[in-house]
Structure formats: C-alpha cells, structure tokens
Amino acid sequence: MSTRLSKGGRLIDRSAALEFSFNGKRLKGYRGDTLAAALLANDQMLVGRSFKYHRPRGIVAAGPEEPNALVNLGSGGRLEPNQRTTVTELFDGLEAASQNHWPSLEFDVGVVNNYVSRFLPAGFYYKTFIHPRPFWKHVFEPIIRQSAGLGSAPKDRDADRYEQAYAFCDLLVVGGGIAGLQAALVAGRAGARVLLLEQAAHWGGRAPVDGDVIDGKPAGDWVDAAVAALEGMENVTLRARCMAAGVYDHGYVLADEKVADHTPGDGRPKHRLWRIRAGKILTATGAIERPLSFAGNDIPGVMLAASVRDYVVNWAVSPGDRTVVVTNNDDGYRTAIALREAGLAVPAIVDARANPAGDLVAKARSLGLRIEAGRGIAKVKGGKRVTSVAICLQAGEGAVIDEIACDAVAMSGGWSPVVHLWSHCGGKLTWDTANACFRPDPARPPLNHDGGAMVHVAGAANGAMKAAEALLDATAAAEAAVTALGMKPKKAKAPVAEAVAEGPMEAVWIMPQGASAELKAKMWLDYQNDVKVSDVQLAAREGYESVEHTKRYTTLGMATDQGKLSNINGLAVLAQALNEDIPQVGTTTFRPPYTPVTLGALAGEARGEIFQPLRRTPMHEWHERNGAYFEPVGLWRRPYCFPRAGETHEQAVHREVTNTRERLGLLDASTLGKIIVKGPDAGKFLDMLYTGVMSTLPVGKCRYGLMCNEQGFLSDDGVVARIDEETWLCHTTSGGADRIHGWMEDWLQCEWWDWQVYTANVTEQYAQVAVVGPNARKLLEKMGGMDVSKEALPFMQWADGRLGGFPVRVYRISFSGELSYEIAVPASHGAAFWAALHAAGAELGAMPYGTEALHVMRAEKGFIMIGDETDGTVIPQDLGLDWAISKKKEDFLGKRGQQRTFLASADRWKLVGFETLDGSVIPDGSYIVAPGVNANGQGKTQGRVTSTYYSPTLKRGIAMGLLHRGPERMGEVVEFNTVKGGTVKARVVNQVFFDKDGEKQNV
Amino acid sequence: MSHFSRLWRWQVGNFRREAAEGREVGTDAPGRDALRDGGHAMKRYSVFAIAREALRHHAGWERAWASPQPKASYDAIIVGAGGHGLATAYYLGKNYGITNVAILEKGWLGGGNTGRNTTIIRSNYLQDSSAAIYEKARSLYETLSQDLNYNVMFSPRGVMMLAQTHHEVRGYLRTAHANKLQGVETEFITPQRVKELCPILNIDGPRYPVLGALWQARGGTGRHDAVAWGYARACSAMGMDIIQQCEVTGVRSEGGKVVGVDTTKGYIGTKKLGIVVAGHSGQLAEMAGFRLPIEAVALQALVSEPIKPCMDIVVMANTVHGYMSQSDKGEMVIGGGTDGFNNYTQRGSFHHIEETLRALIETFPIISRLKMLRQWGGIVDMTGDRSPIISKTPLGNCFINCGWGTGGFKAIPGSGWAMAELMAKGEPGPLAAEFDMWRFKEGRFIDESVAAGVAH
C-alpha cells in the first residue's frame, strides 16, 4: 500500500492538517501536499480510467506531465474538469472526483472495451461502422461519444474571475530550478531586467530531491540563498506558480499565473495571464523522465522513478511498501537509494544494461540492494494494483526467470529535455545519442526580428542532465544572452556542484528486446489514450509512416499531456518499425500551450456586458431610463424603438413613424460617423475618395456622397459638409466610421503619403440629434437662439450658433423626407441638450424614435441604406445613383473597377420599388423567381428584395429591391419566393413611395 | 432504465424516424467497380476483417496505400495530395476511367489544411454557384464512407449559424430564401429552437442576444484525416501512384502546352497537369508562367481538453466571430479568424485566440473553466471574392483548383468531382463553370462575404 511516512517531507507542514474529499470519501493531508501526494498518502493509487479501454489508472508522475491522475475538481460554478492532481495544491475542503467511469471508479462497465481490446486496435473505427449508413450517426457514433471524453461538462457559469497583465523585460528566464536560478543571477548581476518564472509553488526543481551538493552544501541551501539574492535585486522579478505557455513571434510570451487556485473564493482572480514582451528568452525548463515499454506498464503502481523519489522526499509519501526499480540509466538508482534510506523495501533493481557501473551503482551495492543486470521486466502482474513483476533477460524474448512480489514499480527510461518553448516559434532539434533524446540545436534557434536567436536554453532542457553540467551551462547561456542584449556579464564565481560519476545510459525502447506480439499488445505508450507499441507498429505496417500520420492514426500524443510521456517512446518504436533512425522520423509539431490553459484566463476581464468594448452615446442613460429596446450596431447599442407599456415593438415603431410624420420626432444620431479631413490637399483627396466632387463644395454647404472600394462596389455613404477652405466634415454610416477612417489612413499612409491631408475621427466628440417632423422648426425657435428659418438655413446647408444656450452646429439635412435638422453639440452637452429638446418639445408632440422608425421612413422615401440595398456586390449605378458619380473627374476609387465588362453591362439587377398586389409585406430576404432551372438544377432568379416594411404612413407593405433591368420594367408584376413554397406577387413601381416631390422637407 | 439502454432506445428512434423519411440511400459501395485490376490490392475493411485479424495480432493488415517510385510519364499528374488533390484523382478514375495518374506531394498526404481544419461540413451558401458545389460535396459526403470503404465519420449533426443582430437576421433570411430555390435544405429557426438544439448556448447575452439562426440539419462534421486517407487508399487501389516527399520544382511546356514537371525525384512527363496546392498556389502558378489573384494568410483553430458530451451540433456565431463543435473524443473544437497579414508560418498570433474565446465564453458560459489543449494555424489561400478558382489556365492542359480560403474541407468531394470533370474533358462542367480565374478581370464575383455568414 501507499502511505505517509512518519518522518521527512521537505514541502509539507505537518502542523497544518487539511481535510479534503475524493469521490465523497473524507481524507486528510497537509499544507504543502499536492492532491496526488495526499491521495497516495491515503493509499488511493487508483484514480481514474483510461480513454479507450477504461483500464484502471494510477498516478504515474509528480508534475504537469501526468496523463492519468486527472479529476473533476470542485463543483457548481467552480467545477474544473481534467484537473491534474499532481500540480493541484491541496487546500482545506477540496473536493475531487475521478472521471470517465460508470457507475464507479472501482467498477466501470466501460472496461468491457478492455476485454475486447484485441478487436479494437489503432484506427479500428476507420475500418468498421460503415454499414448500414445511418447507423454511424444514430447508433455507433453516439455510443462512441458517450464513452469518450474525460471530465464532466460544467453546467454553471464560472464563479471566478481572471485578469490579464503585461510585462516587459530584457531577459525572461523560464524555470526556477538550479539552472534557471543561476541564469537569473548572472543576468541580474549584469543589470538586465529579469523576469523569472516557475510553474510550481516552490523553487529549486529537482536538485534538492536528487541530493545534489552545490558549493559544498545541500542544493536546497544554495537554492534558498539564490532566491534570497534574486529577491534582493531591484531589476529582477520572481513569479512562482506561473507557467510559460507559449512563445510567439518577436519575443512575445504568454504565461499563466495560478493566483488563487489553492485559495478558491478569496476574492483574488483565479488566474492572471501575463503577456510578456522579452528581449531574449532563456528556457531552463528541465527534462521529463520517460517510461519504459514493458507488458503491463500501465497497471496502477507503475510510476516514473524520479516521481517516486519526489513523493518520498518532498511529501514523505511512500508509493509502495515494496518497490521494484527498473531502469536503463544510473538515475534510477537514486530512487532505490532514496526508498531504502526512507526505510522502505526495494526487492530488486532491474537494470537493462549488462554492466552498470558508477558512484550510484556502487552506493546501491553497498546498501545491499539486489541488482539484476541485463534484465528486464517480462510482465507486470496485477489488476487495479501491481502485485508482482516477472523478470527476464533484456536481450531475450521474455522467458520468465524470476517473479518478485511488489506493490510498486519505479521505472526510468531516460530523460527528454523540455523543448516545447524552444520549438513553438521554429527552433529546431538535434538528436543526442548519448542521452537518447532530442535537444535544442544551437545552430538553428528560433529567430528574432533582427535575425538573432530569440530563445536561449540552459540546463537539463539543453541536455545538460547533471547538476554540475547544468550550472556551467546556465552560466554560459545567461552570459551569451546578456551579451546579445548588449550588456556585459559581471565576473563572479560560478557555483560548483559536486560531480557524481554516472555510467552511460542505454536506450531501451522495448522490454525485452525480442518481445512477442502478445507482449507488445500490452506495452502502453500513451496511457490516457490507450496507445500501445503494437498500435504504432500496426500504423507503420499500414503505411501511416509519417510521424504525423502515425500520431493521427493511433492518437499517440494527442491526450491531455500532449505526448509529454509518450512521444519519444512512440517515435522510437515507429523508427524501429520503419527501419529508420529516430532523427529521420522526426517529431510532431510542438504547439502552444505547454500545459493546458484555462479558457477563462485567455479571455481575461472581458466578460458579460463588456466582453467587447461598449460604446455609449451621451444620451445612453436617458434611453435606458425611458425603456428603450436596444439593438447592437457595431460596438454601439442603439435604441431600436421606445415601446410604451402594453405596446409591442411593432406597435411602438408605427407610433414613432406616425408621430414623426405628423408632429415631431427626436433621434439620437450621435453614432453617425464624423471624420474631419483637413489640409491643403484635402479637397483633392476627397475627390478621389468619393464618386462625386467635394473640392468644389462651397463653405457652409452640404453634399451627399458615395464611397466605393477599389472593385467599384458601394461601400459607404453620407453627407459631407465644407467647414472652411481647408476643412471638410465627412459623415459616415454608424457602423462604417472606424472602417472608413482606416480606409482613409490606408490611402494616405500607403499610397498618397506626400499629400498634405490630416484626418481625425471625431465621432465621439459630438452628440448629434435629429429633430424631425412638421414641428421641427417650431421646437428650435422655442429653444431660442440662432435663426433657423428657411431663408437663413436652407436645405443642404449648415450653420454654427446657439440654441437654448447650447453651442450647436445645425445641418439642414433629411433622411426621412420631413423638415429636419441634425444638430451637433459637444459630447459633454449631449445629455442636457437632449433633455432640453424633450422638455421644450413636449407641447409640440415630441417623441423619441429609434432605428427601426428611421429605417421605415427612409424606405418610404426610397432612400438607400448601406448594408440593405448594398452588400458588397452592388455598384452605385445599380441603385440609380448615377447622378452622384462625377463624369468629369479623371479618377476616383472604384472607377476602374466599374469599367469592367460585368459591371458596365446593362444586364444588371437594378433598384426599383415593389407593391404587393394584396398589400402584404414581402418576406425579408426573398428572391424574385424566373422561369426554369439553371445547369445545376437550381431555380432561376431575376432579382431580390432589399428592404421590405409595413408602411404605417401608407397603411400597406412597401419594398425596394433589385430586379434585372428593373427601371425598364415599371408596372410589370413579378413573383417573390417564400421559404414555405409559393410566391408573393408584386408590381414594379418607383421606389419613392411618399412625397415624391420632396415638398415636406423643403418647407 | 440504464444509461446505455436509454441511449440505445433514443438512437434507434432517431434511426427509424430518418428511415421513415426515406433518407436512406444505397448501402453498398459503388466505388468498388472502379477498383480495377492492376491497382494496389485492397482488402475490404469490415468488422469481420477486424475479427479475423485480431486472432493473429493484426499482423495481416496491408498498406492502406502503396509507396511507389514515379514512372517516366502519366496521363495526368495532380500536384498536391491534400483532400482536394486526392479527390480530383479519385473522380478522374471513378467517373472517367483515367487511372494512369500520379499525385505528387511535397510532404505527407493530407498534411495541409485537410488535417488542420475544424471539420465542419455545410452547404448553406448564398450564391448559386457556391451552393451548387458545396451541396454536391455535402451530398457526396453522405455516402463517402460506403463509396471509399473507409469510415470518414460524416456525422450530419446539424450546423447552426446564429443571428445576433437584426441585420444578420435579414442576411440569413436571404440565405434561407436562396437555399429554397437552390434545393439546399435549411430553415430559419427561433431562439427557443436554438436553445432546444443546443442547451449550453446562452441565448440571452447582454450584448448580442440570439434572435434566431439559420439551421442546416444535414450539415455536420467529418473526420478530416480519414477523408484524405480514404481517398488515398481508393486511388492507390485503382493503380494511381501517390508519391510523397516529392516536391515539384518546375513546370515544363512545349508549344503553349504542359509536357511535364521537374521534381525532387526527377522529371516526370504528363499529358495533363492539375495544380491543387492551396496556400502555395502562387508559387506553382509562377512555375507554370501565370499569376493568380491569391493571398496567403494564417487561420487559427484550437481545441479544449476532452469533456463528456455536452454539445451535439455545430454552432457558428459570426457577429462575435467564433464557432465551436464537440469532437467524438470530447474536445471542444474552436475556430476563429484569420490574421491580418500575409504569411506562410503555420502558426498564428495570440490576439485572435483571445477574441475568439471572449466571444465563445459569452455564447457558451460553461466553457470558461475548460482548458485550451492545443492551438495551431493553417495557411489559407484567399481570392478577392473569397470563392475558389477551378479553372483552365493560360498554359494548355494545365488546370488549377485553389482559393478555398477558410472553407475548403467541406468542399473536398464536390471540388474533386468538378476538377476531375474539368481535367478529363478539358472544359468545365456546370459545377465549375462560374469559378474560372478570368472572373476577376470581368468583375464577375461570386462573393460569399455578402451574406451575414462570412466565416466558415
């Protein structure tokens, strides 16, 4: 059994006992425990089920590479599926539940897959479930879906919050082991701004566990001193619990700081996502131990050797009473020694090498440990827990020599440097034969903007596996990085770690070497996804030879650990099967993040109402108070209508239209785009931008203008006012303001950079109100101030002045066909001005109206709306707007596009109005059908509706639309399709339905 | 009643309903006729074959596709062994009996966008020519597993495109009317129906409440790699040569007609050349002596860690820019936007991921505590109107298929079908007719971005 030892545990505080629960069972642990350590201390080795065969799964590792020990953590708004127990710090009241089983962890019916697993090899689903056809969707796939997935789907909204922060540094050091600490010391002393990140809660990495001695003292003492020294440097920042997730171009790094994972509900953000811009990045991310591939290596109790050591030394947890160590290198002996020193039984060290030798081997011998050299494990026995191992000759085929009773197996297959961050942005790898691993190729680093190396690497992450090498490597790497940053490293005495003489490791990819097919079908590579040696060999046999094919066919390395344990072993098996060298086979692509990052942290503070920026006009609060029903327009929210008690939206819109036509309507038009274009070349510039001529517009006047893109398609419209000799104010659509401003700057900065023009988007600097209706002038006169008479301010002119004491700019323009003034005031006056208009207008029948009434009124007048009559394929000529296109100008944006044959053709769909024969409203989006079908069998069309409304003014349906040669077909009856089948008949008419001669707006 | 028996009854009910609606089509593989003598011997896949092999530790399975050396010349060469290239080859063989074909691949087959998309299949397009080819593709997907004797896991679980502004509502109503005439089955549904179909969706968001959705019940997802592998296996069985790790370095012509290609495995002659290389179309076109109105940008996607099923359909939310479905493994598969600059690195910037996730957490609040497992990028080839090019070229007997942009996976069978017809006959059939490359010169655009649904 696994249990808590009575002594030791460098990370736990025995005075702080904590209670937690696992599958409802109440258990105890200590502050400083990880959940995995606490589970093991309570003899809970079985923690989950595998993905495909639902085999029992135990804790394998002690770090983020853990593929098995994933739990549903917490509940309700704090449920977190797939949480790694090995990196979850224990807290009082923690609730965890195991995953992927039904009805229980101990008894899971899904395990039936295990009993028929020989029928379910890699890719079996590609070869079956083919007939009968509907069965895939209705029978096979639902069953597969039910049994797949790991953690539970949360049901509630996230109860926590997240924040994001920015950091800038000269050197970002990732990893707080001895290499990272030493690198930070070197860079810190050189004066560089250093940011040092460590994913765990504590510093020092493996060295204190491994018993290394630095400068004559235990490594732990050196680590404490180094951390203290770094904390004393003003130019150095240390951040623990902070995982560097991904490296992007130009020194951009994302890091996820787990602020309150271990103190949930204390009011702090759960995570803080750091967006770091670093001059250089130095990764000292260490290495991950590899499992060995022997039959039954997935049975709970089989663990990584170094992780067994971690549990003993860090948390005083014994994973087993009798632990067999199996290794191909000397490091495995450290585990045997640590176990023995903790008073635990190590019945044997099974060493695949024929002649192990070195300091650690000698020490094991001197402790009287049984060493089985040249041997391997033929098979692990046990179900939900290891009961014994059968050993055999490594060079043989698996004939059993001896069987050793044990309840744990500590395996070490060598170490793989953590090269993820190096690789994210293009760093290449080289094969290190001595350590049988890929490590960063210093000749091919990821590059920065200046062509220099963006990432440096140090310590075990660079293949410098021993403490002594790692410290030397870190010093050199940091000095190189600092020098590359243009600083000078200070001379300082480098720390020296006591050298341990270790014998060479020997690559072992399959144990035993000549294992039978039957044994290979029980050797797990990917524990979570149930990928075995036999599966990779099958993929190779079937021609899935590329490493990417093998990965995708077998799902090797696609589990939540993204192959941290399985990839290299799988590659080696593939290489053997293909009779190639490992480096030739290569690796799959390393992608961010290094370990999974919570989506909430990636989204940050932008949640709920502010998940996108919210733009409010100065009158926004008035609208809210007065019951506006809003619609989103870009990032604005505009009142769609102002329904009164008992009114539907439709009734409200009709009332607003009628009131405006008969009395007085007020519209908050502040969202309308307002761009100042100024300078000696401004007129020339606007003549290029608009289809019409703006340079000749007299000061004080307004002109309607159209803008097209380079293809000639209509992209925006609005009224332009000439403010002074060198200044124009361009109104754009509400949704188009930012786009059009960008468009202007694009041309000014990239093409016409020598033109003297300045633009400013002043949309939010002004509040704007449309005062519309027969009583509009009366209201302004009542407000008092400037002369707004027909004579003083004719249609399509503007004037500055004061109204009711407010500084105003009044435009005589109309989008409704009524007598209309659009009045701009500085934004700070907007709310007061709006309120003043309402107060003064009450006796004149003033009512606010929303965007829908605006739409109905413009449609009654036959005015086009960008986005309704246009969709990016419509040119002004299609809309009968030829009058707004200058024939005299040599050029304007879109002119050349409009000359192309398809656009210049007379055979285009053109704007007309439609009146249904029965007075009904044509359905939104309907097409005008034509006889017959096209070559693809689709019903032919000859036009479509673009705007269709019930007109409260005319008491019938009205519509505009595009019809093939429409203006030539007045009076004809056409048919619009409906989604239910059948058609609606409508007569082709002029699109101006109301006040055709414009008498109402010109009073 | 147990969990499994409930599930079973529900599924059988669905099956009966669907069978009653007469949706079932042929149950056997018409493709088998095309698998003629001389091809790579292909054992049929079935549950019986698996059972037989299980008894001998699966030692008897043969290569899914052969690994030949190039011959001196072919009747046709396809450059690019992605989904579109392999499908082109397959339909050349199946529909036109042209099997002396090589498919040349610079890397490994299916390694481009075929293997890195979000696997969505739908055909609810606005423009007639788009709807025609995407619906052809979707309908071929319906029986592709049977045709290829390879389970590509086409799963018509339904695709929903949310309308979250009044403008978007009008846009989707327009698409619904267009689809009605095009014979594409879609409907505009209410927010209540949206919630029924996808209970984890928040339809009352504070910013963009759901106003309805365009729903295509027979849209869905497929297993992307399997599409490439299934076509590759069938092509190989017809005797075609799929040559991986073979980069084309030059295009040779005589008298204005293509005669062969230079490759890293030597010169190979051909009577016809089909260029189907997505992001690298510009380079191949340059070798063939013409230019294309194409730009390459990175499109990103990501997956979460797997969780138990909570979302049965595909949801696309174009106003807020994000789309999501749940894979059979349980991962939430998430797609976002394209980067705003041209490049060839198959990775993306971070800010798009951030924007996408903000939108999706608002739309699906329960995903906030899931974790991003992996993010990646693919290079998409974009034309000026965001529609593909399936076209003759200025070089005789040289044809090109490119420009699928962000929507290529769903089109694979239809694209291959149309391209094969173009290559076999030398002239486009009705499916490809509108997609010629000269349309940009004439301004004859097939602009899909005009519909509210811009993303794929």
Question: What this model shows, in words?
Answer:
The complex is a heterodimer of chains A (1003) and B (456). With 1003 residues, chain A is an alpha+beta fold. Chain A folds into five domains: 1-158, Ubiquitin-like (UB roll) (Roll), CATH 3.10.20; 162-288 and 417-484, 3-Layer(bba) Sandwich (FAD/NAD(P)-binding domain), CATH 3.50.50; 291-413, FAD/NAD(P)-binding domain; 620-855, Gyrase A, domain 2 (2-Layer Sandwich); 859-989, Gyrase A, domain 2. Helix content of chain A is 23%, strand content 28%. In chain A, strands 9, 10, 13, 14, 15, 16 and 30 form a seven-stranded mixed sheet that branches. In chain A, strands 43-44-45-42-36-46 form a six-stranded mixed sheet. A six-stranded antiparallel sheet of chain A has the order 48-49-50-47-52-51. In chain A, α5 packs parallel to α7 (219-231), α9 (331-341) runs parallel beside α10 (359-366) and α14 packs across α16. Chain A is elongated. In chain A, 56% of the residues are buried. Chain B contains twelve helices and 18 strands. Chain B is globular. In chain B, 30% of the residues lie in helices and 24% in strands. Chain B has helices at 3-20, 47-54, 83-96, 128-142, 144-148, 166-182, 191-197, 224-237, 281-288, 350-363, 412-425, 439-442; strands spanning 73-79, 101-104, 120-121, 159-163, 187-189, 212-216, 220-221, 241-243, 248-254, 257-263, 266-275, 294-304, 314-317, 322-326, 332-342, 371-383, 389-392, 398-402. With 456 residues, chain B is of the alpha/beta class. Chain B has three domains: 3-54, no CATH class; 73-116 and 225-292 and 391-442, FAD/NAD(P)-binding domain; 146-223 and 296-383, D-Amino Acid Oxidase, subunit A, domain 2 (D-Amino Acid Oxidase, Chain A, domain 2). In chain B, the strands form three sheets. In chain B, strands 1, 2, 8, 9, 10, 11, 17 and 18 form an eight-stranded mixed sheet that branches. An eight-stranded mixed sheet of chain B has the order 5-6-4-13-14-15-12-16. In chain B, strands 3-7 form a two-stranded antiparallel ribbon. The chains are: A alpha+beta (1003), B alpha/beta (456). At the A-B interface, β7, α3, α4, α14 and α15 of A face α1, α2, α4, α6 and α8 of B.
